[in-house]
Amino acid sequence: MESSLNGSSPIVVVRDVHKSFGGVQALAGVSLEIDTGTVLGLLGPNGAGKTTLVRVLTTLLDPDEGSATVAGFDVRRERTRVRPLIGLAGQSAAIDDTLTGRENLEMVANLYHMGRARAATRTGELLARFDLTDAADRPARTYSGGMRRRLDLAASLVADPEVLFLDEPTTGLDPQARLELWTVIRELVATGTTVLLTTQYLEEADQLADEIVVIDHGRIIAQGTAADLKARSGGEHLTVRVSDLAALGQVREVLKAEGDGPPAVDDATGTVSVAVSNGPARLAGVVRRLDEAEVAIADIGLRQPTLDEVFLSLTGHRAESELADAPTGAV
Amino acid sequence: MVVSMDALRVEARYAPGDILQLWKRNMLAYRRQPDLLVFSTIQPVMFVLLFAYVFGGAIQTGPVDYIDFLLPGILAQSVLFGSTQTGVGLAVDVTSGMIDRYRTLPMARSAVVAGRILADTTRNVFVVGLMLGVGFLIGFRYHGTVAGAIAMPFVAVLFGQTFCWISAAIGTSVRRAETAQVASFVWLFPLVFVSSVFVPVETMPDWLKVVAENSPVTHTVNAMRGLALGTDFWEPLVKALAWMAGIMAVFVPLAVWRYRSIQ
Fold it and tell me: Which structural domain range is residue B150 located in?
């Protein structure tokens, strides 16, 4: 499909989109643009409205108010124009378990009406590209989680879409499979595909996206590059790690007194961190106070904020834990 | 939902091919899922044998052999129970995200439901054929015309196809496959048993007899019996076809509408 758009214009335009489900507002006026050939990371916790926005943009859901266009076509009034231009890989791999990898891709190719010969060629290409050639003629139910996601991604790329929507593509994958998928997504972006990626993994947005939109309770609360967002959360962070988890409460009180915002406590790693200005002086103060309180410090240091801390400083609450199980039916 | 001229053009141009694609997909699934195949073949055969030999001696059907009375009824019962699989299959596709994929493709909207029903109808052709074969082995015989003999299983398949649309409307309205199954059997069981499928309706209490006599299942089974036994079949056949037309008139649009409004 030949694009009529040049590199600098937005290919996806969202204007003030609202969507409610029986009184629960999933999207409360979202506006954004995605430039052709870039990756937009839509970052937010479960229930923030990420999937709802993806469903609006992929013609699965009509917005209550507002409008959205993909390549200039309205997602509500010109669905049949939008559909040939987009690919969607959702939260759960939308593949048929009883069909083989090859049959899954061929079916999708046939439903794009690309002709038998081209469908077979394209299927072969995608299987090779996603390292599924050896497993191509086995039913998909024998695939690992990572293979299923790769097959799903391959299916979303069958018609070489202008815009690819990846809704939490690595949720529920083990770290190894996640890294593999990141590599695949980077390769895709290198070929010029425009991508909208939703994620609750802050690291993932940082790794893959050119621009990040932070969404919470159906509203955009921040927008910018990863570096912009880090700068907005007040520069340096002071982190203290203790080996005795019982001391976390004391550490939290000390950091609350010395820091510039609410401290973030991570029980799993036994760390507490807080945004600080004038870091070195605060570091000395924290060490002194903890020493007086007879708290044994395992590790202490100053560093640039993570996006998790950015989220905390923007919303006042933490993003979902990255260790959380795959969400089911998230809005 | 806005229905545009574009959408109608896509529908007209691609529906036949896309339905065939979905039919193929579902047929492959049948072939590769032995448990589905067991459900759709062994169970109906078991029903034929159980009813013929367990109830055969106890149920009086006048001058007609019980197996000759039973087989048309059990064919109808099998295609009715089998129709639940349409809804279950669609509900599975909704849960797995498969429907989302289909709905983002530039394919005909009607193909997912219609392809599924075409596959279920194909399965019904096999099941009906198999049951007829088993029936012949244990003594079932046609007593009517050749045309009647050919028409009888055809009516069964058409009847099953009709109920697939009800099942499709259920499958696209519930959240889980298990719900689709239960939501179908809850009304299918009484519908099948309060009819002439297993016993002559004359043996039922009056209030139940009224229900049974006007049931689409009774009309269909009586038409099939008429065709197989060479007795009168026109009246029940016309009533059965009227029921089927009525059910289709309500449930085809309903199923399509439910499919379109899945969110």
Answer: 5-260
How large is the average pLDDT for residues B185-200?
Answer: 89
Pairwise CB contact (< 8 Å): B106 & A103? no
A140-149, A231-240, B226-235: which has the minimum mean pLDDT? A231-240
Element (H, E) at A240: strand A237-242
Q: Which residues of B touch A76 (CB under 8 A)?
A: 2
Minimum CA–CA partner of B9 in chain A: A80
> If you measure CA to CA, which chain A residue comes closest to B103?
A60
Nearest-CA distance from A202 to chain B in Å? 25
Residues B108-117 have pLDDT tens digits of: 888 999 999 9
Q: What is the pTM of this model?
A: 0.80
Q: How many domains does chain B have?
A: 1
Say if residues B113 and B11 touch (Cβ distance below 8 Å): no
Q: What is the pLDDT of residue A233?
A: 67
Between CA A224 and CA A233, with CA A165 as vertex, the angle to 5 degrees is: 20
Minimal CA–CA distance to B124: which of B80, B189, B68, B71? Answer: B80
Q: Mind listing the pLDDT tens digit for each residue in A219-249?
A: 999 998 887 887 776 667 888 888 888 888 8
Q: Which residues on A lie below 8 Å from B263 (Cβ)?
A: 21, 55, 60-61
Choose the mutation target among B19, B30, B35, B101 for the interface with A, i.e. most A CBs under 10 Å.
B101
CA distance A180 to chain B (A): 23
> What is A10-230's CATH superfamily?
P-loop containing nucleotide triphosphate hydrolases (3.40.50.300)
Q: What is the ipTM of this complex?
A: 0.86
Which CATH code fits A236-303?
3.30.70.100
Domain chopping of chain A, boundaries: 10-230, 236-303
Give A252-310 as a DSSP string: HHHHHHHSSSPPEEETTTTEEEEE-SSHHHHHHHHHHHHHHTTPPEEEEEEEPPPHHHH
CB pairs under 8 A between A and B: 89
Q: Identify all chain A residues contacting B18, using CB atoms and an 8 Å cutoff.
A: 111
Strands A86-89, A237-242: pairing is unpaired
Which chain B residue has the Cα nearest residue A90? B97
Whether the pLDDT of residue A321 is over 60: the answer is no
Chain B positions in Cβ-Cβ contact with residue A59 (cut-off 8 Å): 103-104
The pLDDT tens digits for B132-166 are 999 999 999 999 999 999 999 999 999 999 999 99
